[in-house]
Write a structure and sequence with these properties.
Elements lengths: L2 E5 L5 H6 L2 E5 H6 L4 H10 L8 H12 L4 E7 L4 H11 L3 E6 L6 H15 L3 H10 L1 H15 L6 H9 L8 H16 L9 E7 L5 H10 L2 E6 H6 L8 H7 L6 H14 L4 E7 L8 H7 L4 E6 L7 H16 L14
Parallel strand pairs: 1-2, 1-3, 3-4, 5-6, 5-7, 7-8
Helix pairs in contact: 3-4, 6-13, 8-9, 8-10
């Protein structure tokens, strides 16, 4: 029986699975809980400050509430707060393993990082490569759901989000994930497509704390999300020829300019009319809004979420106003600039 290991973000789960672990994305457990506020309160009662990221507090609450004994914490390439979270989890008696993405997507550096992780867990990269092959079908199905979202218009933005965000750990059972995706694809192919006159939006940034409210409210106002940037990356759309290449092509841990170079072609291909950039309160990644606004020549709405877990009236008004503005724009303004990115 596999031993559970919590992960704080998308990591090379192939190595964990090769070592006999069942990876559990603590973010997904947190946001999927019906008691999110209580999980955050657990962290705040333990001393986490109110102006600390809600996701970090939620992860801590999940670890305490669900009896997670081992956690792989990403110390470079994700959230700077994770380093101190790791120390607090150690204080609470958990086994904590650090993993650092290289500071640049270099295959040699990634190979060494993967070898070190495999060695620490008592497995080999050869076995991890076998697991990578085992996961190919699950990831293929996830990316097919993505195609049916933007190309065929028969999958909703929320379904797209849920399918792709779950690819970080496949809910602990990739074969069951394959069955669920197969069922969704069968249903979707028999649906009537969304009307062509709906606005097409892109969602960039980390997954939101209020996914259900956001995607459904967008659709009620005459638009739909056809691109979920980071969620799509969880499905490894550019797997390369090896694990090291796959996790070099995974854009999230590296420079924001690499993410821009991934985003721009998708905006063109998916005929996007406007962009929603989600940022989490108190997160350093919010500063990246400056780069995105400089590189993307499309109307952009920046939304900040914290710990409401619902799309409050202020955010609803901003989303509605943004969509209304897009409706007044000429279809000719939907192109994306080709500004060089280095």
């Amino acid at each position: 029986m596999s031993k559970t290991i919590g992960i704080t973000t998308t990591v090379p789960i192939e190595v964990l699975m090769a070592a006999g672990y069942m990876p559990v994305d603590l973010n997904n457990v947190f946001i999927g809980s019906t008691e999110r506020e209580r999980l955050v309160n657990i962290a705040e009662r333990a001393g986490f400050p109110q102006n600390c990221c809600t996701w970090i507090k939620g992860i801590y609450g999940v670890c305490m509430e669900h009896g997670i004994e081992t956690v792989l914490c990403v110390t470079s390439g994700d959230c700077s707060n994770t380093v101190m979270l790791m120390e607090v989890l150690k204080l609470r008696g958990l086994e904590v393993l650090p993993f650092a993405y290289p500071d640049q997507p270099d295959a040699g550096l990634m190979q060494r990082a993967l070898e070190a992780l495999a060695g620490r867990l008592g497995t080999t990269l050869a076995r991890a490569e076998e697991v990578r092959t085992e996961l190919e079908e699950a990831r293929r199905l996830a990316l097919e759901v993505d195609e049916l979202t933007w190309r065929d218009g028969v999958v909703s933005g929320l379904e797209n989000h849920l399918s792709l965000v779950t690819a970080s750990d496949f809910s602990g059972d990739y074969e069951e994930y394959e069955r669920r995706m197969g069922k969704l694809l069968t249903q979707a192919r028999n649906r009537k497509p969304y009307p062509d006159n709906l606005l097409r939006l892109a969602y960039i940034g980390v997954p939101p704390v209020f996914p259900g409210d956001l995607y459904q409210y967008i659709e009620r106002n005459g638009a739909r999300v056809v691109f979920n940037e980071v969620q799509r990356q969880f499905a490894m759309p550019s797997p390369g020829r090896s694990l090291s290449e796959q996790y070099c092509n995974y854009t999230y841990p590296y420079s924001i300019f690499g993410r821009v170079n991934d985003i721009l072609p998708q905006l063109r291909q998916r005929r996007v009319d406007g962009v929603i950039h989600y940022v989490q309160a108190f997160c350093h990644r919010g500063i990246g809004d400056i780069v995105f606004r400089n590189a993307i020549d499309l109307p952009m709405l920046t939304l900040e979420g914290n710990n409401d877990f619902v799309l409050n009236q202020h955010l609803r008004t901003r989303v509605e106003a943004f969509i209304d503005m897009l409706k007044r724009r000429s279809a000719a303004t939907s192109g994306v600039s080709a500004k060089p990115v280095t």
